[in-house]
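can u pls check wat happens w/ zinc ion
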Amino acid sequence: MDSILRRCKNCGRYTLRKDKCPYCGGELEVPHPPKYSPDDKYGRYRLIMKVMSGKIKLSPDVINAIISGSSQSKTQ
Ligand SMILES: [Zn+2]
């Protein structure tokens, strides 16, 4: 199934139009869905940065699990 959504390269808004952005007239591109992998070390790093900057509140043991690499063991 083809994606009907287009994203403006200029302002970043999503639109159903295919020619140009209805908001600013900018060029459109097909948005790529963000790939999330639990083993993505950069994704984990970004998460750590968010925690450190106070954007996400987590308990200390959860933070420790993320920092030490929780992907190696998945004990419930
Ligand atoms: Zn735009």
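Residues 1-33 form one domain.
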